[in-house]
Every structure is written in structure tokens, then in C-alpha cells.
Design goal:
Layout: H1 7-32, H2 78-88, H3 99-104, H4 107-110, E1 114-121, H5 132-142, E2 148-159, E3 175-186
Antiparallel strand pairs: 1-3, 2-3
Length: 187
């Protein structure tokens, strides 16, 4: 189906591409411009003197316990500041549905509208007017949808064979106008 007949799919596709490009750029910037220097590691060098000929009991060196690890320093970069802006914002953005739940759920798909083309005759209602709602429902049901609304109709005049006889005058019942639904918006 072309993008002209399904503008919702084209808009959704453009939105997903924009989101993916933004995420890729954010990851590239964050990994390329890390502004925090890696923490320096403290090391203890222990030198052991050569053992004397007579081993004397030496007290075991007491190593003081390591101080508790300090919380990691905050990265003062641009990405971190933007993250703080969204965390502290009173306006919370709604969470996007995950791809897994969207793929498993067909509820969102049944609400999408699709334009279909065809040609179905509108039956006559009790008052003699064409009933094109019934025809648009039939057109959508023939394409696998539940119901529809007519977008485009066509009218044609059909005449009996008597009306085609040369020299014969047309009478009132010889020709009639038939209406058709040619496009419908289906759900």
C-alpha cells in the first residue's frame, strides 16, 4: 500500500526513524565525549626484604582497611545535564509502549483506518434513496475489514434494451440511475 493511501503509517514510520536517529546520535556523543577522567586507582607497593639466615618471628604487617568507596563523581557533561532536566521536570512524558507488547497486542491495529478501492452498488432504501452505507460496509468486508464509510461514489445511468431502439421515445421507467461506492475508509 502506498504512503498516499495510508498517511498514518507514513507518519508513524517517520516518527520511528527520527527516534532511532536521535538515540544513535545520543549514544555516539555520550561515548565519544566522556568528560570525566577515569578515577585514579591507589596502589600499595609492598617490598619484601631478603630473608635473614635465622628466621625471626616477624609480626604480620597490619594493613588498614580500605576506606569505603565514595559515590561516583557526577559527570558534568551535556547529556547528564539534559537527563537532570527531564528528571526534575514537573511535566512527565508518557512512557512509550515496548515493541514486544505492541507486537503482541492487536488492539491498536484494529483501530487503524485503511482506504480501499472497489465498486459496489448502493441498494435502494425504503424511501427510494441509495443506501451507500451498506455498500461501503460490503466493500470493506470484501477486503477483510469490519465496516467502513464511503469516501467516493459514482453514478451511472442504465437503460433497458427498449430505450436503445432507434426512433422510440423514452418512457419514464426505461432508464434508472445507479449509485456505486468506489472508495471507502475501512476499520
Amino acid at each position: 500500500m502506498s504512503e498516499l493511501t495510508n498517511p498514518i503509517a507514513a507518519t508513524a514510520r517517520a516518527f520511528l526513524i527520527a527516534v532511532l536517529v536521535t538515540l544513535i546520535l545520543a549514544v555516539a556523543i555520550a561515548s565519544a565525549w566522556s568528560q570525566a577522567a577515569p578515577p585514579a586507582q591507589k596502589s600499595i607497593i609492598i617490598q619484601v626484604a631478603p630473608a635473614a639466615e635465622t628466621p625471626a618471628p616477624a609480626p604480620a604487617p597490619v594493613v588498614p582497611p580500605a576506606p569505603p568507596a565514595a559515590p561516583p563523581a557526577e559527570n558534568p557533561g551535556l547529556i547528564n545535564e539534559i537527563g537532570k532536566l527531564f528528571q526534575d521536570s514537573p511535566l512527565k512524558l508518557p512512557a512509550l509502549p515496548s515493541f514486544k507488547s505492541f507486537g503482541e497486542s492487536t488492539d491498536g491495529l484494529t483501530r487503524l483506518n485503511t482506504i480501499v478501492k472497489g465498486r459496489v452498488a448502493c441498494p435502494r432504501a425504503a424511501n427510494g434513496a441509495p443506501d451507500c452505507k451498506t455498500a461501503s460496509d460490503r466493500l470493506c468486508q470484501s477486503k477483510g475489514f469490519k465496516e467502513g464509510k464511503s469516501l467516493d461514489t459514482d453514478a451511472a445511468q442504465s437503460c433497458s434494451a427498449k430505450a436503445m431502439i432507434p426512433g422510440r421515445k423514452l418512457e419514464e421507467g426505461d432508464c434508472k440511475t445507479e449509485n456505486y461506492v468506489t472508495q471507502a475508509l475501512c476499520q
